[in-house]
Amino acid sequence: MLALLGVTTVALVAGAPWVLPAAAGGTTLKPPQNVEVDILDDTFTLRWDQSRESAGDGTVSADYQIPGLVDHWTKLPGCQHVTNATCDFSSLNMNVYEEIKLRIRAEEGNHTSPWRELDPFIPFQQARIGPPEVHLEAEDKAIAVNISPPGAEDSVMWALDRLNFAYSVVIWSNASGAQTRNETLHSRYPRIKIHKLVPETTYCVRVKARLFLQQNPAEFSPVRCVSTAAENELPAPENIQVVLENQTYVLKWDYIQDNVTFQAQWLNSYLKRFPGSDSEKWAHVQGCERAHVARCALPQDMFQKEVYFRVRASRGNRSSPWSEEEKFDAGRRAVIPPPVVALKPLDSHSLHVAIGFQDQMAFQHLLTYEVSFWENTSNTEKTFVEHRTDFTVPSLKPRTVYCAAARALLEGGPRSQHSRPSNTACARTEAGGAPGARLAAGVSTALAALLVLCAATALGKLVHYVFFPSGEPPSTIDEYFPEEPLENLLLSTSVEQTAQCFVVENADTVPTEVNRTDEDHKTYTSQASQDSGNYSIEDESGGSHIGEEPGPPGAGTGAYSAGGRFA
């Protein structure tokens, strides 16, 4: 790799002149000497010392090669048969982060010198940072320096770094031709506002850009000068600051005049990285559009990682210049109180953890929690980060005491930005067996439920059989009612007759609606003909005769009632 020489050009300086055999015309042709590559932003220039011998009809040509990709040389565009001592090869389409190799030779008529090869180099590492463009805006006591990053907007060299430049601004005043102030300011933003200047005074600035973690040399911009305006009737507010009062952030400032109103604005810091005027990027602070006192409370949604504030005063149609910008970084200024932790058992194998604070905080939604959890009788501690304030810790032992503590961390802030540890909360899990025992108990319960269901089904069938048997009557019934269709006796409930009927042993004897008892006869019971579908035949001793041979007519063994029962 070639060394960086002052202006960071790739230079090849020839050693002892090459002694070449005489050409056909008796002259010697040597390759170009002191060859160097100069890269400024996206401009690529190849320079060399012109030989006196070839000052007439001599030309120079160059080739390039991408080591590792191609093993042959290609003509370098813009550097073929050049008569001058320089050529521009900016039109070459290349990857500025990949290594490239050049070679150059002299030409005269049909004769050429040997090739002189340059050491390989990476364009991005060899490039110089060009001067940025600078535009000035003057107030009475301040100057805004607007900077355009080096290179064109479509720059290939700085395409990935256009927003990563930092700037050094040198400012001085030319009061009566003498420099009364000379100061260098540094900023990572392309707009810098310089305060505490003298009204009606000429100030000059020059700016150069640089890249973090890179050693590319940079060039200063041309000098730009501007004169500050006459002093404003309303001065800008001073001493802008953000303070924490009762867990609420308050924007405060100082002002020396009365009968004015104030307007506060805010800006996300990342918007300051984009070049150009940022007047349209600022937004009004809610509740601070027309403040009558030199303070206002900030809403919760203002608490980003890094925010800028500014304030100005107004009276009637007149307004002061904007104050100096105050940067507020919630991650570095916030004071986080210790949280409060509570534990509650859910069952024999889990605990519920709740995290809170005694007072509400404006930035509470930005917090995460580092939780320590351990068994009370063990020294083994489990630590994890949790984003929720309510969560469950599972897979614990039954009837065991566990403890927990936590501290709050500010999300997006430095790791050291955390609260003090919380209280230590402990709780005992409920009684219960191991997960396997619980599973066995569950299976047993399910099996018992299945057995109960089967038993209930069997019992239901038994009840249905006893109280609601099949509608097919015994064969004995047909003998007593041979002429009537059986279907007439099996009417549904909705169409059954309510008349009473009797079956008697003696056809000459007609019983009444009351029961009659005789020594030689059986007892006959009268019922309404609400047929329930139940039938029975019993003898005097109560025995059943279903399936036996029936007796002759007139010597019946029982009575049938329309109610469906035998007595």
**How does the major sheet shape up?**
5 strands, antiparallel
Radius of gyration (CA) equals 53 Å
If helices are DSSP runs of H or I spanning 4 or more residues, what is the number of helices?
4
Give the helix proportion (percent range).
Answer: under 10%
Q: What labels describe this entry?
A:
567 residues, mainly beta, Immunoglobulin-like, 5 domains, 5-stranded antiparallel β-sheet, flat, disordered N terminus, disordered C terminus
Care to describe what's here?
The protein has 567 residues and is mainly beta. The protein has 5 domains: 10-126, Immunoglobulins (Immunoglobulin-like), CATH 2.60.40; 133-227, Sandwich (Immunoglobulin-like), CATH 2.60.40; 238-328, Immunoglobulins (Immunoglobulin-like), CATH 2.60.40; 340-432, Immunoglobulins (Immunoglobulin-like); 469-567, no CATH class. The chain is 8% helix and 32% strand. The protein has helices at 123-126, 330-333, 435-467, 475-480, and strands at 10-12, 33-40, 43-49, 59-65, 74-75, 86-88, 101-108, 111-112, 116-117, 133-138, 143-148, 165-175, 178-187, 191-194, 202-211, 224-227, 238-245, 248-254, 261-268, 283-284, 295-297, 307-315, 318-319, 326-328, 340-347, 350-356, 367-375, 381-386, 390-393, 401-410, 425-428. A hairpin with a 4-residue loop joins strand 10 (133-138) and strand 11. The radius of gyration is 53 Å and the shape is flat.
Write the layout of secondary structure elements.
Layout: E1 10-12, E2 33-40, E3 43-49, E4 59-65, E5 74-75, E6 86-88, E7 101-108, E8 111-112, E9 116-117, H1 123-126, E10 133-138, E11 143-148, E12 165-175, E13 178-187, E14 191-194, E15 202-211, E16 224-227, E17 238-245, E18 248-254, E19 261-268, E20 283-284, E21 295-297, E22 307-315, E23 318-319, E24 326-328, H2 330-333, E25 340-347, E26 350-356, E27 367-375, E28 381-386, E29 390-393, E30 401-410, E31 425-428, H3 435-467, H4 475-480
Antiparallel strand pairs: 1-2, 2-3, 3-6, 4-5, 4-7, 7-8, 7-9, 10-11, 11-14, 12-13, 12-15, 15-16, 17-18, 18-21, 19-20, 19-22, 22-23, 22-24, 25-26, 26-29, 27-28, 27-30, 30-31
